From TrEMBL:
This is Major royal jelly protein. One of its GO terms (cellular component) is extracellular region. Residues 1-17 form the signal peptide. InterPro entries: 6-blade_b-propeller_TolB-like, MRJP/yellow-related. Belongs to the major royal jelly protein family. The keyword Endoplasmic reticulum does not apply. It comes from the Eukaryota. Its main location: secreted. Keywords: Secreted, Signal. It is found in: Secreted. It comes from Fibroporia radiculosa.
Length: 448
């Protein structure tokens, strides 16, 4: 029945295509730049590779199957044998920066110094705070210029390196210390490792139980940094004016930044029900993770984001986020919330998001071992690259290399197999990896 219907639909479409222009022509479909379906269909037909020899007639049955693969060839950039990575930022000279959420790890921000090793960056000193635990304030961490837990590292359009520190190191397994002001920070370095600025946040912008997760920069005008707060206790966005250092929040508690409490993801085909292990202040339950991935449109006008525990995808015009709420702007919070646009479902939850110069918004798709991309010109998610080796695409970074070519790099870290999500058992296997794949466009520099 279904196939007859689709045959009829195809005939109708063919008839329309031959007629003169009408409102039913949809001349824009498929939209320009849409990938050839053959390049992205992840299926094929072939005989079963086993168990068919007993009946020769069946061995000739070519059976449709999922190849698990589409898009450009992925390239293995790095194998991590030491620590568990999240962030990646790639400079135009090919230097790759990466970050490690820190428990007892000796460094949290690093640079690749070979394809299988990492070195602390800019040096060990920056990665060595005087302490993790606050001796006078049990359960809290400390204020320090040094790194506590760098969740994300981003290279901006001027090739500067930014470390986003949650200020909440993990101790004793999954126990996240709470932050004190001066712990959470955004630290800017030149590519040569010279620190040129450090921003900290008031206690009512980044709260003790906040978790600033990822950051994107708009270097137009005074310059802004946009951050997600992925804490289940504080779903929201943090905006920082790079010129004045002032920061404020937006979208607090809005559904677009909040987890979908009925979310059941599927990883490697297996429905995933999290065993809820929670300790005070611990953010170890991504059934509850809020706004996580973040990307700025190439022209700076929209901020795209997605809660980790949701398949829903959202954006908000940055013009509303740039307004600092206050006594003279009493409606700013409400107006930003009213301006949020639902982009519908994206087909997977997404951990990392990233932009390229042509306007695509790349989205890690852990449920499909894939990276997909949103085309703002059509409002559709398109397939980009898929492979069974993409085991939890975490964070993405687009770069235009001086040596030629545009690439998207991403970390794969098997997140859902970690002990915090598997009732204490670690099912991950080393090495964790970083891949890259070529893209048609390049980095969106977000400059004037
Ligand atoms: C796509 O694949 C089909 C089936 O193999 C083939 O008939 C068709 O010519 C292909 N189209 C393109 C544009 O390669
Ligand atoms: C760090 O913690 C992990 C997990 O608890 C443990 O396996 C490892 O031995 C610890 N490393 C050090 C240097 O203490
Ligand atoms: C990379 O850095 C680590 C840590 O500093 C160091 O132990 C290692 O020798 C370095 N490896 C290379 C190849 O430079
Ligand atoms: C410990 O916490 C207290 C209370 O929040 C704070 O005033 C103090 O600066 C913290 N200690 C350090 C070393 O940061
Ligand atoms: C971590 O464990 C050590 C040793 O058991 C203990 O002294 C310390 O208080 C614990 N820290 C926290 C924050 O629970
Ligand atoms: C590092 O780079 C910055 C910006 O290019 C420059 O101003 C500074 O002098 C450099 N520092 C060193 C030690 O090379
Ligand atoms: C989780 O681990 C604890 C401690 O080992 C065990 O008692 C409990 O039964 C486990 N729960 C599940 C759902 O496996």
């Amino acid at each position: 029945m279904l196939s007859q219907l689709s045959t009829i639909a195809l005939c109708a479409a063919a008839a329309l295509a031959q007629s003169t222009s009408s409102v039913f022509d949809f001349p824009e479909y498929p939209p320009a730049g849409t990938p050839d379906p053959n390049s992205t269909l992840a299926n094929a037909a072939g005989p079963l590779p086993f168990g068919i020899a007993s009946d020769p007639k069946l061995s000739e049955a070519y059976i449709h199957y999922d190849t698990g693969t589409y898009g450009p060839q992925i390239e293995l950039v790095h194998a991590y044998y030491t620590y568990w990575p999240t962030g990646v930022g790639v400079a135009s000279d090919g230097t790759v920066f990466t970050s490690f959420p820190r428990g007892n790890e000796t460094f949290t921000l690093a640079v690749f110094n070979s394809s299988v090793t990492e070195a602390p960056w800019p040096d060990q000193e920056w990665n060595t705070p005087p302490a993790f635990e606050n001796t006078t304030n049990p359960g809290y961490s400390i204020a320090t210029e040094k790194f506590l837990l760098v969740q994300s590292v981003v290279v901006d359009g001027l090739d500067r390196v930014w470390a986003l520190d949650t200020g909440r190191p993990e101790v004793n397994g999954s126990y996240l210390l709470a932050a004190v002001p001066g712990g959470p920070k955004l630290v800017g370095f030149y590519l040569n490792g010279t620190n040129f600025v450090t921003y900290t946040f008031p206690a009512n912008v980044v709260y003790a139980d906040s978790s600033i997760n990822d950051v994107r920069f708009d270097l137009r005008g005074p310059g802004y940094a946009y951050m997600t707060d992925s804490s289940p206790n504080r779903p929201g966005l943090v905006v920082l004016n790079l010129e004045t250092g002032a920061s404020w929040r937006h979208l607090d508690g809005h559904p677009s930044v909040s987890p979908d409490t009925s979310f059941v993801p599927v990883y490697d085909g297996v429905p995933f029900y999290l065993y809820p292990v929670t300790t005070p202040y611990a953010i170890n339950n991504f059934g509850l993770y809020a706004a996580d991935g973040i990307a700025l449109s190439a022209d700076g006008s929209y901020l795209y984001y997605a809660p980790l525990a949701s398949r829903h995808f959202w954006r908000v015009p940055t013009s509303y986020l740039k307004v600092e709420p206050g006594p003279l702007k009493p409606y700013a919070y409400l107006q930003a919330k009213q301006a949020v646009e639902s982009l519908g479902e994206s087909g997977s939850n997404a951990d990392g998001l990233e932009t390229d110069s042509s306007g695509y918004i790349y989205a890690g798709a852990p449920e499909h071992n894939a990276v997909t991309r949103y085309n703002p010109a059509t409002g559709l998610m398109e397939p980009f690259v898929r492979s069974p080796y993409i085991q939890w695409p975490d964070t993405l970074s687009v770069v235009t290399l001086q040596s030629g070519g545009g690439y998207v790099y991403w970390t794969c870290n098997q997140l859902w197999l970690g002990p915090n999500y598997q009732n204490g058992t670690d099912f991950r296997t080393k090495p964790y990896v970083m891949f890259r794949a070529p893209i048609e466009a390049g980095k969106a520099t977000q400059l004037d």
